[in-house]
């Protein structure tokens, strides 16, 4: 079961990567376990789940390590760090750090048309139409889910994940 993680209790794997991003990397993996994409979103039944991180990489090796050797519904993972949205070709999950939010302004609806699970880090991102956004509350990484945006992206979010999400303000 996916549960909120306490930032202060997480061991650091590398000093360069903050505990916050270690936790967010784990959440990204878990989101793929509790989100269902439309069947036609994958080219084949063996196609990997493609995760793109837009702009600067805040994860170091942590995100790749968190999905290495793992599978969800028989699918492996492919993680790519893309400097611009033009470099991002049909990911299944797009992580948008706060510093790159403006790069997707005005194109988030197009991402939804392609069935992309968009994950960001601010309330602004959620208001822009992002599907999931992280927030910090009392040293805990938590998240909001925009159900309307998930529906627009033809994504099915499990009830378990929705129960763990914070209620929108």
Description:
This protein is α/β, with parallel strands linked by helices. It has a single domain, classed as 3-Layer(aba) Sandwich (Rossmann fold). It is built from six helices and nine strands; from the N terminus they run βαββαββαβαββαβα. It has a seven-stranded mixed beta sheet with strand order 1-8-7-6-5-3-4. A two-stranded antiparallel sheet has the order 2-9. Helix 4 links the parallel strand 6 (117-120) and strand 7. The relative contact order is 0.18.
Fold topology:
Blueprint: E1 5-6, H1 19-33, E2 35-36, E3 49-54, H2 62-67, E4 77-82, E5 93-95, H3 108-113, E6 117-120, H4 123-128, E7 132-137, E8 140-145, H5 147-152, E9 156-157, H6 159-164
Q: What's the short version?
A:
The protein has 169 residues and is of the alpha/beta class.
Enumerate the strands of the largest sheet in spatial order, edge to edge or round the barrel. Answer: 1-8-7-6-5-3-4
Main CATH class: Alpha Beta
User: From the structure provided, what is the oligomeric state, counting identical versus distinct chains?
Assistant: single chain
Order of helices and strands, N to C?
EHEEHEEHEHEEHEH
Question: How would you describe this structure in keywords?
Answer:
169 residues, alpha/beta, Rossmann fold, 7-stranded mixed beta sheet, two-stranded antiparallel sheet, 6 helices, globular
């Amino acid at each position: 079961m996916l549960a909120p993680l306490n930032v202060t209790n997480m061991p650091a794997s590398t000093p360069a990567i903050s505990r916050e991003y270690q936790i967010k990397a784990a959440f990204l993996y878990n989101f793929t376990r509790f989100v269902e994409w439309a069947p036609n979103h994958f080219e084949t039944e063996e196609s990997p789940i493609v995760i793109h991180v837009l702009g600067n990489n805040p994860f170091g090796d942590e995100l790749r390590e968190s999905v290495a050797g793992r599978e969800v519904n028989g699918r492996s993972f492919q993680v790519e760090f893309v400097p611009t949205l033009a470099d991002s070709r049909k990911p299944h999950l797009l992580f948008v750090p706060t510093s790159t939010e403006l790069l997707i302004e005005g194109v988030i609806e197009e991402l939804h048309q392609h069935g992309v699970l968009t994950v960001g880090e601010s309330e602004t991102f959620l208001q822009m139409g992002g599907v999931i956004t992280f927030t910090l509350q009392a040293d805990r990484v938590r998240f909001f889910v925009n159900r309307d945006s998930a529906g627009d992206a033809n994504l099915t979010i499990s009830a378990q994940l929705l129960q763990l999400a914070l209620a929108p303000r």
